[in-house]
UniProtKB/TrEMBL annotation:
This is FZ domain-containing protein. GO terms for cellular component: plasma membrane. Coiled coil: none annotated. Belongs to the NALF family. Keywords: Glycoprotein, Membrane, Signal, Transmembrane, Transmembrane helix. One of its GO terms (biological process) is calcium ion import across plasma membrane. It holds the Pfam family Mid1. It comes from Guillardia theta (strain CCMP2712). Residues 1-22 form the signal peptide. The keyword Signal applies. One of its GO terms (molecular function) is stretch-activated, monoatomic cation-selective, calcium channel activity.
Amino acid sequence: MQRVGMNAFAFVLYLSLPGASAYMSRYSCNTTADLFKRQGLTSETFLCAPYVNYTVACDLDDDPALGFNPSCNNTFAVQVYANFERALSVYSCRDYSRIWTCDNCTVAYKRWLCSALFRKCNQDYECPENFTSETLMQDFGSLADADSAGTNARAIPDCVMKTCQDVCYDVVRKCPVHLEFRCPPVKDLREYDIRTCNNLERPSTDNVNALSSASSPACPRC
Ligand SMILES: *[C@@H]1O[C@H](CO)[C@@H](O)[C@H](O)[C@H]1NC(C)=O
Ligand SMILES: *[C@@H]1O[C@H](CO)[C@@H](O)[C@H](O)[C@H]1NC(C)=O
Ligand SMILES: *[C@@H]1O[C@H](CO)[C@@H](O)[C@H](O)[C@H]1NC(C)=O
Ligand SMILES: *[C@@H]1O[C@H](CO)[C@@H](O)[C@H](O)[C@H]1NC(C)=O
Ligand SMILES: *[C@@H]1O[C@H](CO)[C@@H](O)[C@H](O)[C@H]1NC(C)=O
């Protein structure tokens, strides 16, 4: 049981390693309607339905380590989420924090998982419907730029919007420390960002009730 749980965390670590081979090299921007059709989903069976209502950047290739394609994959999302819930059930959800409960942790984790598996296409760029890191290099010429923090911005093509840092740190804040969920250091902006970023149209998961009401704040192009 522990072991199954740990697979979810191996996946977490894997996600924080941009630059892993074949990571984000060939992408396609798909609508959620397209995902529903291809995967036979409904808003009841789509795990990320409350979070993902935007054009999604899907990797076109299998992950060589996993042997299948985890990107935009609802079956995989459901599996990882179930593993997480199993791992969480090992801990006493009563006494790990005076503020947070396992429900709060689960909500934060789900939001993060959805952001990681269903990346948002960055509509601020005239991105082609499908694209590779190489074509983007020619089109925008900016992939190799180092950012002000001195990290390499190559990790994520400009057509894929980075996830808001808070989406990750929300999980660290709200989940039992023993789960050892980690985010990249705040200065590492390869995968996460703080200004223009995907927060899944939810400013924070602090208010669970606000989460279920579908109103999205000003979001010019989504
Ligand atoms: C996204 O669309 C492309 C073609 O436009 C398709 O090959 C791919 O399978 C789609 N991805 C998903 C996850 O539906
Ligand atoms: C968002 O949801 C609405 C209603 O379900 C749907 O009509 C629309 O196509 C969705 N937008 C995207 C970008 O998936
Ligand atoms: C989606 O993930 C499951 C594992 O959860 C895997 O068996 C399946 O092959 C994946 N789908 C694709 C299209 O790779
Ligand atoms: C992009 O789509 C076009 C037509 O849909 C196809 O010919 C081309 O091979 C695709 N490119 C990639 C990189 O998938
Ligand atoms: C934490 O979860 C509980 C149970 O779902 C909820 O009542 C409470 O509002 C949540 N706390 C915050 C600050 O969102």
